[in-house]
Structure formats: structure tokens, C-alpha cells
Amino acid sequence: MGSEPRSVSIEGAAQVLRPPRDRMQHLRGPSELNAQTVAPRDLAVRDGAIAGLHPDGRAELRIDASGCAVIPGFVDCHTHLPFAGWRAGEYEQKLTGVPYEEISRSGGGIKSSARALASMTDEQVLAQATALASEMLATGTTTFECKSGYGLSREAELRALALARELAGLVPQTTLSTALLAHSIPDGYDAGSWMVVVEEMMPSVLALGTVSALDIFVESIAFGLQELERMGALAAAAGLMLRVHGEQLSCMRSVPVALRAGARSIDHLSQVHVDDIGPLANATCAAVLLPAAEFLGNEQRAPGRALVDAGAIVVLATDANPGTAPVFSIPIVIGLAARLYGFGVLETLGMATLNAAWVLDLAHDRGSIEAGKRADLLVLDGPVDSIAYRFGHNPVQIALIGGVPVYVRDEAAAARLSYTEVA
Ligand code: NIG
Ligand code: FE
Description:
The chain is of the alpha/beta class. The protein is 36% helix and 23% strand.
């Protein structure tokens, strides 16, 4: 029995999710999102990539997918891994009506996670992060983004980015690294003087060789529009993508500034101004919705339906972090998004696969089932509409990364796999 088969045949699936056309970079509007199809098909995988939409009777591994849906692995383009510890006590405070801003101003929130990071060894942080990555794999996440941002000093931010680089070598998923260098204003600084430190850090950040984006938290309790503009200039000068935490807790009008700065995505958007929906929808900039943060933080609800209908590149992600969203499951996020924003399941799937891959600049390589793309695939235990309907149930039976089954849920799932001896 080979555990790393060079060829795989996935046979008899009741549904295989396909994009409207091959080589699309992203899906905009109900017309493209709902032009995805689910039809019964077979799939052949060779050397880690999708070889075609046909069975391969000579494959080293055959997977019986009868009754199952086969979809691309989920891409979680917004997480705060690796972080240290948890903040359950704060959640309890929030449940009883203490606002996040107040918790944050009294030394909790991001600052408390920064203290926890400082108190843990590299090994402890990586042990927590690898355990969470395997939870994510079990719910179908085959690619995820990491963010720094719990450092809050030059050295600690660089340590967080180095830990993200180490994590990449410890988990089966592909990970990408974002430097969230302006997350909370460190003690002893104001927003402007911290940005001077950020600018000075850039050579060391780039020297790591793994960072693909910069990020900033634009908020009344964090950074302002001037710093956003400055972060945009730093990203442009370094050839990195710009990501923005914007319009989460208050309406800051960060959207026009982020668009002028060439942002790849604006994430949260719970309080986006109605006049900013059209320009965002017309831009080559994704609107990343984080319904778990909205739900658990009792935040305002982003105008998800309006953004889709206006033609924005809408994306779903977990925002996995110890504060606002200790949630690691994309199926949960899909269930929340479908209900909270009024999305159909096909729409949510495009948002958590191809559109999310686009945010990470990986849409050429993954995020949809088409010949030539990486075989990051999920075999689900039922049809795709169950993902939202059976809210809280994990639909993932088998996850393949690069054509290798890296997660097999249970005996029933294992019984679907049959290996052939090859000479
Ligand atoms: O995306 N909004 C800023 N950052 C995180 C939360 C950080 C935290 O509370 O630890 C977010 O929600
Ligand atoms: Fe976030």
C-alpha cells in the first residue's frame, strides 16, 4: 500500500464542483458564482495535479466517491495564526455586554495576546498552531494565510513572522505569510511614530523571504487613514500586496483610501459606508467577509448580498484568532454566511475556494477543479447544499493535498480508498 500515490482516480462522485469556465481568476456577481456547476463526474489525478475529468482505471489509488460531492480544498485567506493561548475570559465579558473597544482600551484584546506570545517558547507557539492546522485540515482547509500582529515590537513581530515560516514546514497545508505590522499601537508610541518603526523594519521583513503581503487594522482603537496610505506606499515599494482590516467596529471610510493604495482586499466591512459599495464592487480588490467575527462579536452585519449583487469579488474566511473569532472551520463560516448574508451554497463555495485563492495570488494554481491545477480536493459525505444546511456538522470525509490523502475521517472514509500494487 502506497501512502503517496502518483496517480489517483476519484470515481462516481454524485457532484463535482466546477467553475463556469477554466482559467477564471475570480468569480464576481450572482451570474458568475451561480454559473458554477455540480454534476456527477470522475476525476483523474497525476503527480499531484488534476489530470482530467475522467476515471483512471490504472491509478495507484482509487477512491469510491459514490454519493459524495468533490470540491476544491478550502482556502482560508484570513487567519491570525500562529498565536499564543486563548482569551475565553474576554468572550465571557463580551457576552455580558462589555464592548470589544473597552476590553481593548483596558489592556485586553490584542495586547493580551501579545503578552501571551512573549511568554511562550517557540515550541509552545508552534505546538498550538500545528494542532489548529490539523483541526483546519479536518474541516477541509488545504491552504491558509498566517498573520503576525501579536508582536507589538520590532523584535516580536519579526519573531512572529519567523514562526509563521517555521509553521509552513510543519503542516501539510500551503501557508502564506502576511505582516500585520500595524495591528494595535504599541505602548510608548502613537500611530505616526509606530509607522516610522514599521518603515525601518521593512528590510528585515523582506529578508525573511516569505512575506507576501502587508496588513493594517484601520479602526478608532488602532490606526487611521494616514497610516493606511503609508502602509500602501510601503507595500508598493516592496512589491507586496496590501491587505486591510477595515470598517469592522466603526465606519472609517477606509475603502476609498485602500482602493487608491491598490489594496488586494479589504476585510471585515461590517460598517462599510453605502457609498463605498459601488467603488469596491468595481475595483480589482476583494471584499473579504468574516461572519464568525461578526456573529461572535455581535458586530454589525456586512452588506454581503449587496456586495455580491454589485459585482464585488466577495470572499469568505474565518479570521481565526484568539479574540474576535476563535473559529477555524470554513464549513461553519459557510453556514453562517449563507444564513446571515442570504447567500446560496454555490455562491459561498466560490467565495471560499477560487476567490479566496485570488486574494493570496494563487488562483492560477488552485481554488477550482480544472485540469492542470493542484489536486487539493475534498470528498464530502453528502451533497454541497448540506454544508450550510447541516450547520455545525463536518462534511469532510477525505482531504487530498497535491493528490495525497492527508486526512481520512473514519473507517467509512477509509473504506472508500483502494490501493493497487504497481510494478
Ligand atoms: O481581525 N481586527 C483586528 N484584528 C483581529 C482581532 C484581533 C484580536 O482581537 O486578537 C480581527 O478581528
Ligand atoms: Fe483579522
